[in-house]
UniProtKB/TrEMBL annotation:
This is Reverse transcriptase domain-containing protein. Pfam families: RT_RNaseH_2, RVT_1. InterPro entries: DNA/RNA_pol_sf, Rev_trsase/Diguanyl_cyclase, RT_dom, RT_RNaseH_2, Viral_Replic_Matur_Polypro. It comes from Austropuccinia psidii MF-1. Gene3D superfamilies: 3.30.70.270, HIV Type 1 Reverse Transcriptase, subunit A, domain 1 (3.10.10.10). The lineage of its organism: Eukaryota, Fungi, Dikarya, Basidiomycota, Pucciniomycotina. Residues 99-214 form the Reverse transcriptase domain. Residues 279-366 form the Reverse transcriptase/retrotransposon-derived protein RNase H-like domain.
Length: 367
């Protein structure tokens, strides 16, 4: 580690650099004055929905930090697991009991290896500090914390608990069972010194906002706040604005039929040499995509007792597929998939294009 820089300039953030944050962390034994400060990192104090968080610039340190081999699930994978839980599908609407437990501290609950504390030293106008616990900004922080909570709740996962980092959902098919399940989860929290934020942890509800979605026994739907954010989005005037919009929209792409086809003209402007403003075709797609979000359906949970169908569509530039249930009330979508066709697929004959869509869709959902 001798190649680390000796000193990085202090960043003064005025009101954002909150002395209360350092006092709190110091009294909670999260930071302490450095034992032998040989280098110190720059930092930011940012406001998040969970409160103020101290983010240090560990880019250089992360270059030397060995990565942990662990497959941390994507948010959408966690949601898909939730959709496939049979508990969600065999009960009438508003019958499932849900609870969301929002943990305090997250990565700060992990102790740094003894002797490595000085590697996290940082300097403020209130003095120099080093972390005793894992700070936000280290590349292994999310993976290490996910491993911790997975180990703690290992025997409960997908039985009546779903975990994604610091957000833990407990689900039950009756209020009586829910009391028992929540009690077991809370006992597990206490045994492992995990603290929950009561103001962010709703108990005994039939629907809950989880990882950007609203989850209930009916299915999944978009968070209303995110929904309004898309509707109020101004049309992109430069590359950065377009990347921001598509990045946001991509998070909810599985609510939109033939999403890849609907953004084909927009994605053509992602090239570095593209000229703005957007042309008429791209602007039309932008407004059509926003309109598609206004009519986005509730995605049903998977129910193996119902007939399941897969419908595919292959256009000149994209593939699309819909996974649905057939019930007495009609056809209900479970998920939408789409992607652009790669160059070697563009010259396929019509029947090959259609077969490509079928094979691709089955590979997506028959794992």
């Amino acid at each position: 580690m001798s190649e680390l820089p000796e000193k990085i300039p202090l960043i003064i953030l005025d009101s954002s650099e909150s002395p209360a944050l350092f006092v709190t962390q110091h009294t909670q034994y999260m930071v302490e004055p450095p034992s032998f400060p040989s280098f110190e990192w720059d930092f930011l104090v940012i406001d998040t929905p969970k409160g103020e968080e101290l983010i240090l610039g560990f880019d250089f340190l992360n270059h030397f930090n060995s990565s942990i081999e662990w497959r941390q699930g994507l948010i959408i994978r966690t949601i898909m697991i939730l959709q496939n839980l049979s508990l969600m599908t065999f009960l009438p609407p508003n019958h499932v009991q849900l609870c969301l437990i929002d943990l305090c501290g997250a990565c700060n609950l992990l102790r740094i290896k003894a002797g490595d504390e000085h590697l996290t030293a940082f300097r403020t106008k209130y003095g120099s500090f080093e972390y005793l616990v894992m700070p936000f900004g280290l590349n292994n922080a999310p993976t290490s914390f996910q491993k911790l909570v997975n180990d703690i709740f290992q025997d409960l996962l997908d039985v009546f608990v779903v975990v994604y980092l610091d957000e833990i959902m407990v689900f039950s098919k009756s209020e009586e069972k829910h009391v028992t399940h929540v009690s077991i989860a809370i006992t597990r929290h206490r045994a492992n010194n995990l603290l929950a934020k009561a103001s962010k942890s709703p108990f005994h509800v039939t629907s809950v906002e989880y990882l950007g979605y609203v989850v209930s026994s009916e299915g999944l739907k978009m968070d209303q706040e995110k929904f309004q954010q898309i509707l109020n989005w101004p049309h992109p005037r430069n590359l950065k604005a377009l990347q921001s919009f598509l990045g946001f929209a991509n998070f909810y792409r599985h609510f939109i039929k033939n999403y890849a086809k609907k953004i084909s003209s927009l994605t053509s402007f992602l090239k570095r040499d593209s000229c703005f403003p957007l042309n008429e075709e791209a602007l039309d797609q932008f407004h059509q995509l926003k309109e598609a979000f206004t009519t986005a359906p509730i995605l049903s949970h998977f129910n193996p007792s119902l007939p399941t169908i897969v419908e595919t569509n292959a256009s000149n530039y994209a593939l699309g597929a819909v996974l649905s249930h057939i019930s007495e009330s009609g056809k209900h979508p479970i998920a939408f998939k789409s992607r652009k066709r790669v160059p070697e697929e563009l010259n396929y004959e019509i029947h090959h294009k259609e077969l490509l869509g079928i094979v691709w869709a089955l590979k997506c959902w028959c794992k």
